[in-house]
Amino acid sequence: MTTSAETVIAPARTRTATATATATVRRNQGFQHGGWFVAPFLALFALFVVWPLLRGVYLSLTDANISGDGANFIGLDNYREALHDRAMWDALGHSAYFTLLVVPCITVLAFLLAMLAHHIERGKWLWRLCFFAPFLLPSTVAGNMWQWLFTQGIGLFNETFGLTTPWLTDKSYAMLAIVIETLWWTVGFSFLLYLAALQGIPDHLYEAAKLDGANAWHRTVHITLPMLRHITGLVIALQALASLQLFDQAVVMMDFGPGPELSTRSFVQYTLEQGFTSYRVGYASAMSVIFFVIIAAVALARMALLRNREEGTR
Amino acid sequence: MSTTQLRLKPLRTKPRKPWTPSQIVLTLLGIAVSALFVAPIAAALFTSLKSEAEAAEIPPHWLPEVWTAQAWKALWKTGNITNWFVNSLVVSILVTAIVVTVAALAGYGFARTEFKGKTVLMGMVMAGLMISPAVLGVPLFTTVQQMGMVDTYWGMILPQCAPAAMVYILYKFFQGIPRELEEAAFIDGAGRWRIFFTIVVPLSRPSLAAVGIFTFIASWNNFLWPYMVTNNPDLMTMPNGIATVMNSYGIQWAQLMAGGLMAGLPLIIVFVFFQRQIVAGVAHTGLAGQ
Amino acid sequence: MGRPDLNRRHLLATAGGLAVAGSLAFAALGTGADALASGADTRVRYWNLFSGGDGANMIAMLDAFRKEHPGIDVKDSTLQWGNPFYTKLAMAAAGNHAPELGVMHMGRVAGFSPGRLLDPWDEDLLAKYGVRKADYNPALWNRGVIDGKLYALPLDVHVQLCFYRKDVLKKADLLGDDGRMIQVTSTDDWFDVLKKAKTVQKKGLQTIGLWTNDQNFQWWFFVAFYTQLGGTWFDDGDTEVLFDVDKATQVLEFFRKHVTDGYVIPGAPTGEQFINGAPFTWEGNWSVPVFSGAKLDYGATPLPPVFGKQATHAESHSFVLPHQAGRGGATNETAHELAAYVVTHAVQWAAGGHIPAYTPTLSTAAYKKLTPQNEYVSAMYHQATEPKVWFAGSTGVLAQDLGPLVVSSTMGSAKPAAVARTMKNHLTRLLASKNPMDGRTAAQGGAAA
Known about the structure:
Number of strands of chain C: 15
Oligomer: heterotrimer
CATH class of chain A: Mainly Alpha
Number of strands of chain A: 0
CATH topology of the largest domain in chain C: D-Maltodextrin-Binding Protein, domain 2
Structural class of chain C: alpha/beta
């Protein structure tokens, strides 16, 4: 912050003044003002995020029920039970299976749709509208639509494609039906992210490649894909976190049941069943905590990967 | 020939790109894929214009043989759906207003002011990104139950109003505003709050709009939390009411589709008119996670 | 150029501000538009789970009540049947936002924490509106009594039935002289009947609808046939599992044979198949109005006694008073009045296939004329019910736990004998588990009947 003697006076004065002003802001009004700016958010955050998290940890150590009174401390019994609860592991397996199916499909599909919309020169707004519109529907509405399309006999899906597949009533198809619905419903979001990223790639890169004689395929592989690496990581991460939390569309398409032979019961659904159907709030809280750990692990894994990559590129 | 061309040319507002073979193929492909995407919505629309008997016919067909608005009329008559529409509006508008206000203030606070424990709190906010009603549903419900807010508007609204993600997005944005602008105003004697409202807010209108749009869409479509916290059908929002309260005559597909369209179409129509802003908003909020 | 833009912005800002203010005001009132619009003296909220024909009948009865009582506003809400309904009712009661009146399956009452989530009926008030214990089958009435207090007022008995198409069976010579299906007393008889029916039925349809994919129906059918074999669940003190694996295996193999012998198309919608000409379907009696409405020539008997003894699965709908901290006064009395009205005007309800619980209804000429109700009214005396423990009852923990197992056997994803053993393991675990509402096991009388 020292001003060199050679500096012309006027700018120097301004700069010093600015520096002093910043310092004053920091020193005098810093805590007070900063605190008030973030206070409303922190209050809501404390009440509806931090407190429920702490409460969840506490409840998970009790045998609390839905009525909210008469809970006893039972130590780690809930966690012990959860470890041996086949149904819980099955439910986790269903959520994981769904995620493994949806994430790669959505990523590839979103990329292809974005490439298509980006390269067609006419009616860009129309493609954007068509691919993105399903995302604007509530999950339950999209679920109802596809439940009806998939219903045997009266549904248009089998009718249109000449099939007789028991989509919603056979355990080997039920999850696939949910995956198809999910692709249709949510691909629009990732599509938009890819489209925005495609538009952000500078034209001169392509021009240069063209001059070097690279064809369209080469340009895609050697320019587009590398330039989209970051966005692909983002799409995969966002989609994985969302897919692990599968609930809405699955319960709507299965009439709020667990699907044929329990085949579509997700982790979230099983947790809510324990809490709100079996009234076991303590046990359900333990499962919530377990789920939080899983989600946090996935998120942290992604952050670690990002950091590694940044260090790698540097 | 040449004279006609000459005369025609000025009439064109902008030069058309030629229909190269690759453009023709791509456009046709685009039309085909778009048709696949629009088909379910179109099917729902056609079904909502069938009679209930025709909607459940085996085998099914796309277009109604007899066009009728009975499903739409029945929806209005039973009244639930208008109730839910109002509830959805009330909840989404308030959530959006609160989130934009609270997140803007907090984002600015984190980006531009100093206070004790800022780093720790910022870390907590980042951790909060991982928490949703799907993850912590049961404890969140018991918390709200303790506050006596089950089956109230506030019970639906407030837990949706602490989105760490939106704070983070605006925090990133505010960091990008040149400090010089604020400092100049400070020299003129403006306080922090005045600087925030007269300089920062007008500068960040697009970002605030993006956050607002995204929040409104998310809140309008939110199912899980309203589903957990409302039992009284009078208070339900559209997505929740349609899924959990059936009309008393059993599944009537025509009515169900009409109700679904009523819940879904407002956003799609808004999208048609504000496409640029919404696309920017969604892309902006999504990309901020990079 | 800047001016119109500014105006537009002002307009938008004003509109936005008004929208927020309006929403705020609305949320502050906190009751929902419908309650605001209601100008009646007494408003009774009534939650039920009746859809389809039942829903239509219930609404007709409510409309009749409304006509006779113009000062009372009945706000009925139909929620999705099954667990969403019980979840919402429990949460509303726990959160003290319960409706004045609700409907429940009798089997669920024991596990629904009477006294905490349910309030008892005032029998004097009920008597004032014409409903007395003497008007009921004592056993049925007592299912709703817990710790000496009445918590559930029975509305009906509903049973699982074997529906058959008279027009199809006639061609296969399977109708007796009375025009009803011939008697079947063994599994061999039964498959013989199916075989004959299959030869005359329309092509492309299934012979019988068994709800092979539905965990609820499969469970109800299992309870029926397991009871026919004389199978039991627990000892009297609810301390020991008496579940008979061999008998259970026999039942499961019986179900599975329908699939392996090709009488069932798994996943086909059963009701539509029957209406289109499938000779048989096993359904709840609530399908009566659907099939009558389709003008079919059909009959309905209790599930065939293929293991020698009559028994068919039965449950009851009953009225309950969900817990309200401040229950009492005019709204509470109106809830009693409304429930009593529906119970005593149940001929309309019987049209939905249910057997009315209020016995004076059964002896009315109007009821005796109803077909096929008069063909299966005897089912009332051969009820197969779930054990009386806290985890039982319609879509309760027991059904949710064991139902999918029955389905897995019927669908062929697991062997019947193995499934029967798993069922016994689950029953052992459930018997040892504590009712989360009071922390007691079934043996300790965990809110048992």
